[in-house]
Specification:
2 copies of one chain form a homodimer. The first copy, chain A, is an alpha/beta fold and about 425 residues long. The first copy, chain A, contains 15 helices and 12 strands. Chain A folds into 2 domains: about 20-45 and about 290-429, Alpha-Beta Complex (Aspartate Aminotransferase, domain 1), CATH 3.90.1150.10; about 55-290, Type I PLP-dependent aspartate aminotransferase-like (Major domain) (Aspartate Aminotransferase, domain 2, 3-Layer(aba) Sandwich). Chains A and B meet through α2, α4, α5, α8 and α9 of A and α2, α4, α5, α8 and α9 of B.
Chain lengths: ~425, ~425
């Protein structure tokens, strides 16, 4: 494309030419050539939206009014209730903000708040492009395989001390269970991080969009330890399978009116309010109930079982990976194969993923997309290429206190298993 | 609110404290005190979403996938078809961008395009705050009552010549039929403006969200005269009554890939894609058909009849106003009463609207909100405070080639008539 004679915001030029796009384009090209592609790139829940939530959308299809910019009152109450019941948090409905996806709310936050953005890596793919578009400073803190890709309080404090400015306005984003690695923090770890955040008066954006996909149903929020400085992010996209519906939530501390208010003002000048029928439907998701809990229990045990199976295969094949605590990602490390890969001309994660895709049809995302250095041989695998409706129906037929039969994963999710086996074979070839 | 110790983007501080908000707060306060309020402030269609479109939303309630960032292919085809059929425009589906409201798309456009924003006034309320948030220059061109609040090609050329820089990147926004005045340009006028735009190589954002609410069904797009430089904006909010659903469309010239592409990139880092069930439903709205045409014919004749009635009452009462060509607004001018109002301490539109509301319960928006000078005694009246479903049902019962009975407006829209009579009485008191 010839951009020579055009006039584009310089923060935006070149955005979007990401390795994700390259992997997608290459996938499409190979598929057109007749190659079988295992799509493990996009992080979309494979499960359907729970039936009662879909029914509510139908029942409210005629709702046509512009709703309050901060969100439907019943929904804000339901979100407060959800966090009280699930996370033991005291959130006031008037401090909840509903947006068309938590990604959009995150963008508004970065646009409105004037401060540096601190990101432990590996981190989700959109935080950094957002900061670039707006022109914010990004400070990365790289975690290690040995720490299970988790930021430690010690690391955080070291970094902050090095900046020589205790009260610089800062926003740190913590995402747990995490995209891209499914790891989560223990209560003790969160408490220590909270202590550092409090000392430096940082804002914590706690991205808990995968909280309800903690396999043991035991997600803990850092807002329990730092209620006065934590914004809790959630939404329908992951635990409720409704990514395409576009509904996210931010829950603010009571003393954050100074930030919530201008965010709502910018919302009113941009997306206005979230789709009315979807907001009515979302009430039923956040209020919850037996049907939703049953759905979650089945979703969790399917994901747990599949994660365990994949980790086994990968570890047996020499690929470094931790068993995740939740969500549907594995962050895998090929460093045991570095020498062999280097000989093939593979010197980093983008080349690793391109070569893997070309040679095997398995599409995964390079670690560099998650802000790891390009030389590192890491990648994210989203184990979502299976029929979630079928898996859910099969799981529902098995009493919740019984174990899955040994062939459950093979039966429900054979494409995932096949792809993971292909990865191992390829690495060892 | 104490913002002293907070860190907020300076472009955003103070945004949202608009007269619209003040009028709304005052309305709520007076209503709580037991006063009857005529809400003619918010510009929302009073009509329901057409039945086949609501049915489509129900049928697609289960759709949960993230759709393409630019929009569902079937919808982009339907929008191209719509503009071909309605506006005689040749738009390619691949040049259509779907967003969560045309307001959000407008924001993306201002964010991505680096150029000055030219606005004829009176203009819609959100263009200027968006430019302020992003930090763009705004250049206002004030139109006159005598020109029916329409920008002339001569005015535009004068302004551009005065800037001494022919090829400065510029974006002009034209909105017709217009919010806040319902006026529209003739083909000859558009052709002249197009000639100037071409000479200066300006981008025209043609906001045609009210196009299908042209009373005679004869909306003409400037893209017919300046296809290579016009972006046409539309959406479901006004002609389809679905403001709360949040779906807008931008249709780009074929040579605008340089702009569409980065806008889509920013979309993918913000709202991601538009609500999937709503996109499926919107296909039926843009494809159209007999049910939609019938709906539009009835909506148009109801609005036309009511506009005519209101204009009659206002003009007979000495208030200056033009009969609009479409939409559901009147931009009224109290300058005939300037002396009398000044004596009451009313020296501009904000005071005018506050006093009117306090003394009569009629809530309308001051001309200053639409970027007219504060001293001017203008205001926008949205004649939408009636039961659109009832009016539609009554209109449908009358053959389309027959005239409405004389008491139709009084019967269907008595609150509107009452409020307009109150305004006249108040001005003449």
């Amino acid at each position: 494309m010839d951009n020579k004679h055009t006039s584009i915001n310089l923060n935006i030029r070149g955005i979007g030419q990401s390795p994700t796009l390259r992997i997608n384009e290459l996938s499409n090209k190979l598929q057109k050539e007749g190659k079988k592609i295992y799509r493990m790139g996009l992080g979309q829940s494979p499960f359907p939206v729970p039936v009662p939530v879909v029914e509510m959308l139908k029942n409210h299809a005629h709702e046509k009014d512009y709703l309050n910019v901060k969100g439907l009152e019943a929904l804000r109450k339901a979100v407060a209730h959800f966090h009280r019941q699930k996370d033991n948090l005291q959130i006031k409905p008037e401090n909840v903000l509903i947006g068309p996806g938590s990604k959009e709310l995150m963008f508004l936050l970065q646009l409105v708040y004037y401060g540096d953005i601190i990101l432990p890596t590996p981190c989700w793919v959109s935080y950094v492009p957002q900061a670039k578009i707006i022109g914010r400073n990004i400070k990365l803190i790289h975690t290690t395989f040995e720490d299970k890709w988790k930021l430690t309080a010690h690391q955080l404090e070291e970094f902050l001390r090095s900046e020589n400015d205790r009260f610089k306005p800062r926003l740190i984003v913590l995402n747990y269970p995490s995209n891209p690695d499914g790891e989560t923090h223990s209560a003790a770890e969160l408490e220590k991080i909270a202590k550092v955040a409090r000392k430096y008066e940082m804002i914590v954006l706690s991205d808990e969009i995968y909280g309800q996909l903690h396999y043991a149903g035991k997600h803990i929020s850092i807002a329990n330890f730092y209620p006065e400085g934590t914004i809790v992010s959630s939404g329908l996209s992951k635990w409720c399978g409704a990514g395409g519906w576009r509904l996210g939530t931010f829950s603010f501390p009571s003393n954050f009116e100074w930030l919530l208010h201008p965010m709502a003002s910018v919302a009113s000048e941009t997306y206005t309010s979230v789709c009315a029928p979807v907001q009515y439907a979302a009430v039923s998701a956040f209020v919850g109930g037996i049907a939703i809990e049953r759905y979650l229990m089945n979703v969790r045990r399917i994901l747990y079982s599949l994660a365990k199976k994949c980790v086994e295969i990968l570890q047996n094949g020499g690929i470094r990976v931790h068993m995740p605590s939740g969500a549907f990602y594995l962050f895998i490390d090929f460093s045991n194969f570095a020498e062999k890969l280097n000989k093939k001309g593979i010197n980093g994660s983008p080349a690793l993923c391109e070569k893997l895709l070309e040679e095997t049809g398995v599409a995964i995302l390079p670690g560099s997309v998650f802000m790891r250095s390009e030389e590192e041989l890491t990648a994210r695998l989203a184990f979502v290429n299976f029929d979630g409706s079928k898996a859910l129906a099969m799981s529902e037929a098995i009493p919740i206190n019984e174990k899955f039969p040994d062939d459950f994963d093979q039966h429900c999710c054979n494409q995932v298993i096949e792809a993971v086996e292909i990865i191992v074979d390829w690495a060892n070839k």
